[in-house]
Every structure is written in C-alpha cells, then in structure tokens.
Amino acid sequence: MTSDNEKEMFLLVDEEGNITGAATRGECHNGSKLLHPVVHLHVFNSRGELFLQRRPAWKDIQPGKWDTSVGGHIDLGESVEMALIREAREELGITGFTPQLLTHYVFESDREKELVFSHRTTYDGTITPSDELDGGRFWTLEDIRKALGTGIFTPNFENEFKRLGF
C-alpha cells in the first residue's frame, strides 16, 4: 500500500455515536470537520508495556510518527466491536483478545474531527505488524512519558495517553 483511498466511505455520526450520514475519506480529512467514528486499542503486555505502531511515510495524516497500538475507522455497516476486531487483525495480526472500553470522546485537529472509542487489552501473543504500518514495538510507560512533547508521537496519541492517565 502506498497511499490512502480518498474515495473510501466513512460513517458520519453525532457526538453520541448516532449515524447521521456518510462521506469519503477525502471529505472527512480535508478540514471539513465532518465527525466520523474511529476505534483505538491500547495493547499492553503482562509487564505493563504498551505497544505503539509507527505510521508509514505515505499516510495522509501524521506520517512517520508513533501512534496508538491499533487505530482505524469504522466501516459502513460495522459496529464498534466489529471494527476493533478487524483493525487489530489487519494491523497487528492479533485475534482472541478481550477488549475493555475505556472511554469515548471527540478529538479535533486542524484537518479532522473524530468520535474515538478507546479500548485496552493485555496480550502476550505474537504481534505481526502489517504493511499498513512501519513496524512497532513495546514501550515502557516511563519512556513514553519522557518522550511526550518531543514530536515523535501523533498529537492524537499524546492527547489520549494523557486523557487516560496511563
């Protein structure tokens, strides 16, 4: 994969998650602030380390930065849980995990506005990052805290890491 599909269809929602319509990726990421739902999964190992993925250079949003373990858009016709399971399998090759919903909130940047459904899980199995990513690795929470504000993480991740109090 070398670019995002600008024609991919995303759900549009209100701040409670009720579907209000649909729009393309291009329309949602062009500064329109059309609210669209996404899932995040924070994957911890049993030592309490957090897996972060590295975004590839070709991504349209925050290329080359470290980000949440798993993150993706909810497809038309999918539930939050279905999207979470699909994205974890597609991005990290993990299955059979038990997600715990932590929170949901609206995140807004200069280019987009997302309704984020944030989850966590503990997983000690094999993680195989897909070609959708530029790899990934486990970090100690202390190493993450030391690197906050240095520009190596996505603003979305930094905001959520602080919000969740990890």
From TrEMBL:
<feature type="domain" description="Nudix hydrolase">
    <location>
        <begin position="34"/>
        <end position="166"/>
    </location>
</feature>
<dbReference type="InterPro" id="IPR000086">
    <property type="entry name" value="NUDIX_hydrolase_dom"/>
</dbReference>
<keyword id="KW-0378">Hydrolase</keyword>
<dbReference type="InterPro" id="IPR015797">
    <property type="entry name" value="NUDIX_hydrolase-like_dom_sf"/>
</dbReference>
<protein>
    <submittedName>
        <fullName>NUDIX domain-containing protein</fullName>
    </submittedName>
</protein>
<dbReference type="InterPro" id="IPR020084">
    <property type="entry name" value="NUDIX_hydrolase_CS"/>
</dbReference>
<dbReference type="Pfam" id="PF00293">
    <property type="entry name" value="NUDIX"/>
</dbReference>
